[in-house]
Amino acid sequence: MHGRIKVRTSEEEKAKKEKERQEKLKFFKHAMQKIQSKRKEGEEDDEQLGIIEKVLLANPDIYTLWNIRRDILSSFKKIKSEEEMVKLYDSELCLTEYCLKVNPKSYCAWHQREWVLVNRSDPNWKKELDLCNTYLKIDERNFHTWDYRRFVIGQCKPPLQDEFDYTTEKLYDNFSNYSAWHYRSKMLVELYPDLEGGRPIQDSHHKHELKMVQSAAFTDPDDTSAWFYQRWLLGAVKVTIKLVACTVTPSKVTLAWSKSVSKEYLNNKIQLYIDDECVNGEWESCTGYEYDDLWILKHSHKILTKSHIKVEHIMNNNGKQLIVCNECQPLVYIGKSEITFQNQYSKPVVEELNDQLDSCRQLLALEPDNRWTLLTTTVFLHCIDPKSHHLEVIDNLQRLKKLDSQRAGYYNDLISMWSIEQQLQNDYNENIEKFYIRFGEKLTSLPHLQYYSFCQTVDLSNQELTSRILPTLIKLQHCKILDLSNNKLTSGWVPRITIGTVNFERK
Question: What is the pLDDT of residues 357-395, one digit of tens each?
């Protein structure tokens, strides 16, 4: 028997663990009772800090105990010297560092460390940056560490290019690092803004990032991090806020926008003239939010047949947009602008998108069921030329619904949005004043509804709309006839048509 390792039976091991658990539980209960008792009595002292520390060393995620420690340290700051507080803060940093070894993803410990550094007079930010480097070597995808790194960088403000290069280094170590991609996106816009063209990112760097993300995506087509960053890059284009439609009746004015704007924006950027007289008043959000894409102005200004009505919009690029409203029905004036949903990419970026589209097609030939490659191919087609590629885009989305059934709702909503965008441009060009679906795909959502706010007749029958769309119908401010028959409105509400508005009642 000598020299042999004694192996406990499973019963013995189980009993031993249970005994250890009971001892820990006994200590925890006793310590928490002591802490609560001292707190109730207002005893903020070193003993209280010591008891709390012992509990946190075993479980660093009890945020109440960290709150108590902050209260005690704040009280000490009023009565202790600067030298004594430095020692206490150093001790607190040591405690958080030990707790982070127990759990590197402890929200409480990271937050406590931030609090200590903000409150002490001599924070060592270089040491904190080194700490971040250490933890990101252990786990480069720990988003808690990345969040803390952003906090540290915000305080010590090292050269932004150094941080950008650091993300490049970490990404080449592991492309599957969503936090690094996200951090990179924040710096990219600051480092390389397009000051001349007004785009978020310089063309050369936009193109460079697209190349880099393509390498990452093709290294591991099933990893989502690079694909999401790529989608962000494709959306990093110049966005112009435009007034898209104005409707004027004897009782109210509605302005529809391409993007949500605030009341302050309207007050500073909009002038409405009826028969050369400026109309002022209080703008109201259609949905009640601070930012909205449809705003209402109730007025009592007299409108006549053949009145001259126009709206002037001072744009952010110092340009001026003018919409003249024409009388479409007696005392109902409607004005619309030219619209487009085509992303405005530079020529070098479009060339890069076409090259990457070819690469995606090649990868799809090898892996036809890879949903991320198929989705990216679809997005490229839509970004390059949504009109000429529309049928292929819709066909791809239908394929994706089968390949990735868990996200079928997302693909259905993309079909709805991109189909509506195609129809909208035709409706505005042809000056159509009735909204009805003119394409084969059934709608599951109602995007861009503010563009149709002037319509008096709206036919949404025979679609696949659910009750979630009902609140959005408030944007149909001038609707008199609404057809929602043969949809999936299961909440028990049915449309009741009244002149000038749409109300709902229960069955």
Answer: 998 898 889 888 888 889 999 999 999 999 999 999 999
What does the mean pLDDT of the chain come to?
A: 88
pLDDT of 484 reads 94
pLDDT tens digit sequence for 132-153 = 999 999 888 899 999 999 999 9
451 closest CA partner among 483, 420, 430:
420
Distances (CA, A) of 389 to 65, 331, 367: 59, 41, 22
Q: How confident is the model at residue 2 (pLDDT cuts 50, 70, 90)?
A: very low
Sole residue written with tokens 């507080």? 85
DSSP, collapsed to helix, strand or coil, labels residue 486 as coil
CB atoms within 10 A of CB 30: 11
Q: In whole angstroms, what is the distance from residue 178 CA to residue 163 CA? A: 16
User: What would the pLDDT profile of 234-245 be if each residue is shown by its tens digit?
Assistant: 887 777 899 999
Query: What CA–CA distances, in Å, run from 232 to 189, 228, 404?
Result: 12, 6, 21
Query: Any residues with CB less than 8 A from the CB of 13 and at least 6 apart, and which?
Result: none
Element (H, E) at 19: helix 10-40
Residue 291, classed as helix, strand or coil, is strand
Which of 325, 375, 377, 374 has the alpha carbon at shortest distance from 356?
377
3-state class (DSSP) for residue 239: coil
What backbone phi and psi angles, to 5 degrees, belong to 273? -120, 130
Show the 3-state SS of 200-218. CCCHHHHHHHHHHHHHHHH
DSSP code string of 294-306 = EEEEE------TT
**Closest Cα to residue 105, out of 150, 72, 60?**
60
Q: Cα dist. 425→73, 188, 432, 443, 445 in Å?
A: 63, 33, 10, 17, 18
Q: Where are the beta strands (DSSP E) in 233-318?
A: 243-248, 252-262, 270-274, 277-279, 283-285, 291-298, 309-314
Q: Which amino acid is at 144?
A: H
> Is residue 54 exposed (0-12), middle (13-18) or buried (19+ Cβ within 10 Å)?
exposed
- Bridge partners of 262, per DSSP, are 291
Residue 193 and residue 480: Cα distance in Å, rounded? Answer: 47
178 within 8 A of 158, measured Cβ to Cβ: no
What pLDDT is recorded for position 308? Answer: 94
**Average pLDDT of the residues in 403-412:** 94
Residue 507 confidence (pLDDT) above 70: no
CB 462, CB 455: distance < 8 Å: no
